[in-house]
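General statements about sequence and structure are easier to judge against a single worked case. For one protein, we set the task of working out the structure tokens from the amino acid sequence alone. This step matters because it turns folding into a mapping between discrete strings. The amino acid sequence and the backbone structure tokens for this protein are reproduced below.
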Amino acid sequence: MRILPAALAALLATTTMAVQAKTITVTLVNGHPPVFRWVKHLQETFVPAVNKALEGSDIRIEWKQQYGGSLAKVGEELEAAQDGVADVALVPTIFEPAKLPLQNVTYYTPFVSTDPGVVTHAVQEVQSKVPAMAKAWEANDVVYIGGGFGLDDYLLFTKFPVKSVADLKGRKIGTPGPSINWMKGTGAVGVAGNLTEYYNSLQTGLYDGVVTFATAALPAKIQEVAPYITQVGYGAQYSGGIAANKDWYDAQPEALKKALKTGAQAFEKAYTDDLRKATQAALDELVAKGGKLNPDSAALRGAYAKVLEDPTKGWIAELQKQKLPAKQVLDAYMKEVRAAGAKPVRDWDRN
């Protein structure tokens, strides 16, 4: 069979592109399992968006997705990326108060906004304007790509009914990262913990309650062991973003760097939109599956916020010793959330 010149040229061009196509292996890590929304959107949004952005280029990604502690446990993601064990990681900054202290501003400012989109956007804006925040990532040998993700309004789940702040006295409450500060002044005893061990710790009596959010409490089945749910109004929180090992990232072609950022933007939007839709549905399902909403939540909110020791004072003082602009970050963050329509129960920047 005779091959026409045009057909032959097309065949050769296709063959040449296939030979020249570059396959890059990318190890993507997060310590939580895929049941959690942020991991789901790494799989369903970030990875496909990066692949799509590379269509038409000579780059193909071979993804090695490592979740649920298979390569890094919860809180070990930053170190995994820093050491090159992971190329890219979704880093929960909540578990890095020492290495990424400025990124944790929301956990020192509870009672500000229950909207995760407002909180995440505010932190992203501040992070783009305060050089010290970018330098914090770089100091840990990683590059921040984007993909900020927030968590819906934190709730108080307890094994006992809470009618007043006094009911918390002496009770052991499991709290993630710097949110342990939300217990100070209430009489409760904060105990450091995280979602992966909340259920067992409540079941065994290590905790009398935990602080977490509806969309994570539901898959974790927290209402089974701590059925009383108080909507204290701790607020939505910025919880981290996507970062890459600096040496690995610097060695990549510009097309891949651009694709990673495009994927991060798609991840942030899809995740936030999904979270907003899912929050009330999760709360409703928690109740349907045995949870009991506290009818005194609204009255408790003001009383709780009033007795809470100001978390920002110690945070600012400690970071000032390190010559980090915590007050600048706090002021900028509060300005951003107010501009977005938030009405903080306490004005942390005006204390």
About this structure: The chain has one domain: 9-350. Residues 254-288 form the longest helix (35 residues). The domain at 9-350 is CATH 3.40.190.170 (D-Maltodextrin-Binding Protein; domain 2).
